[in-house]
Amino acid sequence: MKITVVCGNGLGTSLMMEMSIKSIVKDLGVAAEVDHVDLGSAKSTPSDIYVGTSDIAEQLEAQQVSGKIVSLKNMVDKAAMKERLSVALSELGAL
């Protein structure tokens, strides 16, 4: 399972979300590689799940990335992040 966190520049926001997601997948007992990239690199980065804020998620949809897109309204709300990520992981058969 590969999870890619996407933000505009691939720096602060995505790194912060990556750390939260690594903790979440560990808590869920899911073996996943979690990384972060900038929006421009997302389409060329194969992934099962892409995670981004709602504005980034819209742009990922427009780029037609190959994986499932998880849209977050608040990048620091770990409970919502876990809920949305759990749904995506379940849909992909990882949970």
UniProtKB/TrEMBL annotation:
PROSITE patterns: PTS_EIIB_TYPE_2 (PS51099). Keywords: Phosphotransferase system, Transferase. GO terms for biological process: phosphoenolpyruvate-dependent sugar phosphotransferase system. InterPro entries: PTS_EIIB-like_sf (IPR036095), PTS_EIIB_2 (IPR013011), PTS_EIIB_2/3 (IPR003501). It comes from the Bacteria. GO terms for molecular function: protein-N(PI)-phosphohistidine-sugar phosphotransferase activity. Pfam families: PTS_IIB (PF02302). Residues 1-93 form the PTS EIIB type-2 domain. This is PTS ascorbate transporter subunit IIB. It comes from Erwinia typographi.
